[in-house]
Design brief:
Number of helices of chain A: 9
CATH class of the largest domain in chain A: Mainly Alpha
CATH topology of the largest domain in chain A: Tetracycline Repressor, domain 2
Strand content of chain A: under 5%
Mean pLDDT of chain A: 88
CATH superfamily of the largest domain in chain A: Tetracycline Repressor, domain 2
Low-confidence stretches of chain A: 196-202
Distance between the termini of chain A: 53 Å
Shape of chain A: elongated
Order of helices and strands of chain A: HHHHHHHHH
Oligomer: homodimer
Radius of gyration of chain A: 20 Å
Chain lengths: 202, 202
């Protein structure tokens, strides 16, 4: 927010405030992120802030949405790569994101479990984008779409989230090893589902 | 609470109140479960209830603990069975429990994600018991314990929770099929971790 020599458009200003909100979330929980704190850090009045965000709840939702969009953008796969490489590079980018943005990421996860319907929707939208990328690769991985694969891809996404959160807090294996484990887990789970012992129908 | 002809011990009475609390949770969230409602349903005064539970928070924690203990008890494996049968019967019992006790179960899951440290501890204890049962079977499944297997077993538990919650709300495959998918996923994930391409060290 330094030297506002150029008059910023309201949209640009709002984007800057959201970036600031996400960066403030690095060292505190969503509950601790108040409009007062944002005003102080941005060097503008509370009154002006209420021009951009109707209330604390709207501000929180917008900040979580912004953090989530960042994560989705940074993990966007390069379509020129093959499915398995997209999977490992996507996992590496996701791991990097969670490692560097642990608190904003946890705000998303905790928000989803809270009673806030909008935070839950942001979370589910993001989960949908991430699992959609996997579903798009399913044919390339030699597998077919079915109700079972959809369930298992969602389950694998939960496995990735759980494992990454616990790894960031206690890195018991190397980062490369974790990426290898999670990348190997996906085809393993999906191929096991296609084993002839238990036919999988869609 | 019918015909209290025999004077109940305080412990027995408290247990009955907790059972009532869990059953009330079948049709409402934890937030909606008040001391007033419990008093009305139990046919006793609010004052007497505060003899058993210091406040609403303590009551909520005790109810969630009770629901969790029920789940752990009902899913206790029969030690005379082999590891794979223990896995499938354990999964079937877990699925039955979540299906019949969806709201109490979701109170546990949501409580864990909330800021309440005690609810989080109850959840983590329960998760620890469930994954501990898997860890105890690891040798019998032809696998070895390592930091990687521990991470993946936790990840698989998250996959089971996610998949079962989503299946109860939208049963897109049969119950037997779901149990088969989740049972097959565990050794698949663990064996993939032991593949020689990426050596797994503890």
């Amino acid at each position: 927010m330094s030297h506002p020599r150029v008059r910023l458009s309201p949209d640009t200003r709002r984007e800057q405030l959201l970036d600031l909100g996400v960066s403030l979330l690095a060292t505190r929980s969503l509950d601790e992120l108040s409009i007062d704190l944002l005003a102080e850090e941005a060097g503008i009045s509370r009154g002006l802030l209420y021009h951009y965000f109707r209330n604390k709840q709207e501000f929180h939702r917008a900040v979580v949405r912004r953090a989530t969009d960042d994560m989705l953008e940074r993990t966007t796969p390069d379509p020129s790569l093959d499915a398995l490489t997209r999977l490992t590079t996507g996992l590496a980018a996701y791991l990097d994101y969670v490692e560097s943005n642990f608190e904003p990421f946890m705000s998303l996860v905790r928000g989803a479990a809270s009673g806030d319907r909008f935070l839950r929707e942001i979370y589910e939208d993001a989960r949908g984008v991430l699992t959609g990328r996997i579903l798009d690769s399913i044919g390339e991985l030699g597998l077919t779409r079915s109700a079972a694969t959809r369930l298992l891809i969602d389950g694998w996404a939960a496995m990735v989230e759980e494992t990454v959160i616990s790894w960031v807090q206690e890195p018991s294996v190397s980062k490369d090893q974790l990426i290898g484990l999670l990348a190997a887990a996906l085809p393993a789970v999906l191929h096991a589902a296609e084993s002839p012992a238990r036919p999988v129908g869609a």
